[in-house]
């Protein structure tokens, strides 16, 4: 069996993506992905959903127990087939019809005159003998036909033609489309392909005769991957089947697979009956397993779909979920056993320690399913974690702790510890910042000891850093800064200098301290400052300060090993990167997604490595994967409906696709009060999407941003209006504003007709006659114009059709002429080659006979003549004239092959160039030996040397290389 080229290309692309994105299977998500659950009460549908798809406007359509669900990012709508009929499948056709299949029925939805979706049954047109089928589980489009699959029959619908019924000889299971091919499992027979209205059993397909297949997907250029419901995963190469190895066998034990899809990044997503969502890479590594424990509403996933924004939609047994699969953010929270607000984190080997207001938690990060456990004796508020040597220190509300063997040991010192800092030049002495001052601690032989508290300094010391001179700086958020000097033996504080707004700072409050590029900087209430030791004052760092707004206050900053700076301010969250010239770039769009989730008590950032960053959150931590680039793709804002609110009840005027296609809609004056309902196709935190609207010729400018998805205008004067609406998502991306133009006609008493009536009443009979003539003239003129436009339109269509036919005929003739010329050149080249071979064979034969004569003796004069003849023959065998002529023809036919070869491999000798051309002609070794006037062994040696010149791998065929070059 051979697969279509399109399948092979898609599979190769998927494989490349898979290799590049899943190098570390365990880090697909550091924590748990962000999940948005939709309960049945929210979308007002049945608990079960069976199929999901998306149309060209990016609206979501879901086959549900109660009917067809439509979701536009703001509003859920339900459309029923018949009373009580469940919808099992949905497909958006190229004609924008929404094809659905349900219980003993199938058909399509299309908008009526006002835009509301209306159902049309196709099953009703079937003969009675073919109406007895169960449910339509799959719908596909192939060669312009819509194909509905049941477990009994296959129904093929082509618009305008009767429905074809394909009745197999055995029951069917689920079916699958891989690009242009449609596969299905025929029970008791095996995996088959739909071929010309017949099901043809695939070679080796009988392997699946009694195995229920969940999905068939492309794997690589030679194989399909087949996921069965209960019997494992297999690779099929068109002839035979072999098992696909799953590396974590324990995780897949007793798994029941309902559906599998190939993701945009080349990985596989599995909808399971009992283990929620499962992600695999192409090597069988488990990347992710998300279930009820990780935040899903249900462990049973019936169907799965990836939308245009790379979100993963799950149809659950009880609800619907959306997983932000492409997001660089994941969550470490209660779903992983972690409780409380995040304040501190530290990675030590494979273990990740995190501190919250509930205590210290630890998790082994080596497994794919991470679980945090509370470290014994650590309950309470954790403020800071330090790793000094092999020792883990914890600053806690109850005091300083040493964490050993996953157990916290309190060291009696001070009531309430903020932070530890190692003394410069010391390996075993630390300063502890406590609630009531500073303490000296020692760390020897894996034991933390309290030495003494420094007297005469009682300030709460939360932020500590040593400068290059060995002075300790302490930042107090409500007072300012302190510079502290210790005496030589560290027995007491030698001096304390206090700095505030009198020393160049903009205020005494909200002064922070950070170490960036091994220098101390001081973010103040506004601006970032450095300390000028010569002036004993703080001066504004213009380079840093210029990156932020004039009223922006930096709360937290952390720098990674590559110089990237992550920050949290009172306005935003983001990072600063530097190019090779040192030019900074501030990025904050992506981080808008997490800003409201972060800890606003004591903001916290911990850089684990260059790709993994933790932010303290209100619930646990938010993980940011810096190596996972999320593309902020454009999205659309659409006008969902236009309704009149002039009467006692609203009257729907336009909705759905009819609004999209509406041009210059005219409304009577009675409909001059309107309600516009709109939405956006961005599904990540849609409640945070904001809208801005503008009614041209009524509003003076764009409105303020609002989360409302509708706008009312009342008592609009007559005139022409253009309503525009655009959306701004959580990342700050603004969609394009699509205009809707409409005209409100004036009331009758101000209309042209009314004024004409007034004139007629004043002018009596003459006016009435003029009115009738004028009315008839306008009507006739309009009819003539419409008739003329209709005829011109018909002529335009005829001209375009004739032009298209002419262009197609010209292309066909041009292609035929080109093919004839190519065939002629190939024949000339072949004849030339055969002539050369024959000539050389003849000359070689004559040469051999003459040499035999010389060997057998003869007169001296005759021998000289014979040698002269042999030299002449040698000259003819290696004639350059023949070669030049051959080279000219050869380059013409084979796309300048020789010149391209010489340009790419300039070290090739003329003999190797000739050998390459003969290999391109696919000549035998014997023929090449004749043409090059060497032995067959010589040809083999020349081939070996040519391979070395071309640096070919031993597995690559030299002739195939030349044929493809």
UniProtKB/TrEMBL annotation:
Organism in which the protein naturally occurs: Rufibacter roseus
Alphabetical list of CDD domains matching this protein: FN3
Q: Does the keyword Signal apply?
A: yes
The positions making up the signal sequence are: 1-25
The protein depicted here goes by the name Triple tyrosine motif-containing protein
Task: Extract the Pfam families matched here.
Answer: Reg_prop (PF07494), Y_Y_Y (PF07495)
Q: For this UniProt record, give its keywords in alphabetical order, as a comma-separated list.
A: Membrane, Phosphoprotein, Signal, Transmembrane, Transmembrane helix
The record ties this protein, via InterPro entries, to: FN3_dom, Ig-like_fold, Reg_prop, Sig_transdc_resp-reg_C-effctor, WD40/YVTN_repeat-like_dom_sf, WH-like_DNA-bd_sf, Y_Y_Y
């Amino acid at each position: 069996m051979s697969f279509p080229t399109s399948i092979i290309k898609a599979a190769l692309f998927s494989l490349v993506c898979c290799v590049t994105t899943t190098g570390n299977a365990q880090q697909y998500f550091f924590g748990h992905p962000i999940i948005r659950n939709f309960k049945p009460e929210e979308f007002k549908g049945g608990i079960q959903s069976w199929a999901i798809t998306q149309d060209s406007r990016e609206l979501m359509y879901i086959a549900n127990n109660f009917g067809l669900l439509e979701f536009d990012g703001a509003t859920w709508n339900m459309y029923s087939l018949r009373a009580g009929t469940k919808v099992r499948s949905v497909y958006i056709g190229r004609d924008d019809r929404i094809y659905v299949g349900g219980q003993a029925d199938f058909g399509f939805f299309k908008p009526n005159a006002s835009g509301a979706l209306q159902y049309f049954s196709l099953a009703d047109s079937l003969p009675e003998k073919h109406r007895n089928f169960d449910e339509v589980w799959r719908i596909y489009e192939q060669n312009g036909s819509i194909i509905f699959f049941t477990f009994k029959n296959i129904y093929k619908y082509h618009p305008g033609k009767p429905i074809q019924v394909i009745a197999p000889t055995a029951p069917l299971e689920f079916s699958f489309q891989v690009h242009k091919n449609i596969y299905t499992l025929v029970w008791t027979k095996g995996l088959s392909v739909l071929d010309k209205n017949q099901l043809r059993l695939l070679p080796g397909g009988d392997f699946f005769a009694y195995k229920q297949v969940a999905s068939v997907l492309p794997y690589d250029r030679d194989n399909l991957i087949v996921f069965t419901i209960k019997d494992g995963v297999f690779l099929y190469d068109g002839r035979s089947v072999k098992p696909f190895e799953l590396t974590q066998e324990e995780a897949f034990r007793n798994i029941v697979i309902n559906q599998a899809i190939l993701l945009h990044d080349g990985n596989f997503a599995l909808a399971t009956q009992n283990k929620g969502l499962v992600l695999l890479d192409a090597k069988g590594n488990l990347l992710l397993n998300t279930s009820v424990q990780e935040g899903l509403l249900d462990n049973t996933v019936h169907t799965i779909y990836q939308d245009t924004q790379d979100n993963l939609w799950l149809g659950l047994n009880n609800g619907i979920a959306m997983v932000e699969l492409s997001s660089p953010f994941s969550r470490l929270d209660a779903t992983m056993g972690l409780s409380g607000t995040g304040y501190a984190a530290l990675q030590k080997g494979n273990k990740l320690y995190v501190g919250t207001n509930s205590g210290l938690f630890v998790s082994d990060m080596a497994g794919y399913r991470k679980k945090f456990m509370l470290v014994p004796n650590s309950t309470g508020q954790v403020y800071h974690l330090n790793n000094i040597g092999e020792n883990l220190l914890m600053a806690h509300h109850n005091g300083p702790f040493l964490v050993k063997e996953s157990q916290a040991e309190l060291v009696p010192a001070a009531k309430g510890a903020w932070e530890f800092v190692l003394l410069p030049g010391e390996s075993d002495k630390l300063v502890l910042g406590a609630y009531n001052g500073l303490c000296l601690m020692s760390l020897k032989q894996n034991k933390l000891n309290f030495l003494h508290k420094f007297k005469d300094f009682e300030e709460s010391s939360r932020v500590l850093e040593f400068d290059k001179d060995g002075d300790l700086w302490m930042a107090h958020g409500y007072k300012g800064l302190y510079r502290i000097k210790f005496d030589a033996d560290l027995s007491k504080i030698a001096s304390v200098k206090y700095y505030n707004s009198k020393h160049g700072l903009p205020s005494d409050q909200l002064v922070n301290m950070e170490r960036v590029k091994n220098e101390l900087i001081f973010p103040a209430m506004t601006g970032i400052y450095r300390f000028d030791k010569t002036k004993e004052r703080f001066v504004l760092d213009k380079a840093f300060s210029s990156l932020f707004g004039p009223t922006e206050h930096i709360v937290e900053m952390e720098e990674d090993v590559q110089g990237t700076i992550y920050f949290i301010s009172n306005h935003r969250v983001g990072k600063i990167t530097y190019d090779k010239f040192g030019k900074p770039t501030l990025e904050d769009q992506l981080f808008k997604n997490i800003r409201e989730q972060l800890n606003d008590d004591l903001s916290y950032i911990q850089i684990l490595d260059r790709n993994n960053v933790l932010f303290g959150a209100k619930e646990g931590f938010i993980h940011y994967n810096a190596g996972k680039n999320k593309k902020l793709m454009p999205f659309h804002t659409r006008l969902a409906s236009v309704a009149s609110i002039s009467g006692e009840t609203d009257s729907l005027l336009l909705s759905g696709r009819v609004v999209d296609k509406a041009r210059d809609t005219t409304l009577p004056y009675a409909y001059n009060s309107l309600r516009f309902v709109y939405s956006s196709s961005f599904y990540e935190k849609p409640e945070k999407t904001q809208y801005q609207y503008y009614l041209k010729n009524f509003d003076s400018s764009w409105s303020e941003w609002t989360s409302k998805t509708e706008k009312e205008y009342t008592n609009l004067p007559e005139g022409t209006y253009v309503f525009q609406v655009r959306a701004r998502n959580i990342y700050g991306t603004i969609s394009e504003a699509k205009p809707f133009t409409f005209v409100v006609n004036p009331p009758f008493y101000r209309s042209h007709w009314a004024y004409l009536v007034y004139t007629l009443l004043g002018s009596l009979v003459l006016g009435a006659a003029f009115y009738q003539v004028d009315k008839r003239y306008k009507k006739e003129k309009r009819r003539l114009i419409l008739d003329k436009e209709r005829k011109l339109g018909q002529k335009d269509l005829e001209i375009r059709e004739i032009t298209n036919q002419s262009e197609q005929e010209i292309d066909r003739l041009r292609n035929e002429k080109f093919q004839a010329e190519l065939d002629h050149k190939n024949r000339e080249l072949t004849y030339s080659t055969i002539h050369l071979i024959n000539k050389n064979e003849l000359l070689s034969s004559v040469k051999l006979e003459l040499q035999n004569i010389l060997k057998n003796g003869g007169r001296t004069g005759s021998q000289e003549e014979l040698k002269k003849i042999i030299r002449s023959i040698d000259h003819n065998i290696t004639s350059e004239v023949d070669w030049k002529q051959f080279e000219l023809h050869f380059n013409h036919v084979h796309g300048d092959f020789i010149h391209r070869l010489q340009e790419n491999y300039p070290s090739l000798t003329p003999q190797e160039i000739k050998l390459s051309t003969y290999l391109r002609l696919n000549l035998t070794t014997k023929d090449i030996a004749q043409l090059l006037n060497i032995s067959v062994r010589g040809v083999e040696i020349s081939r070996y040397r040519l391979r070395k010149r071309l640096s070919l791998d031993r597995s690559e065929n030299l002739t195939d290389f030349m044929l493809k070059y």
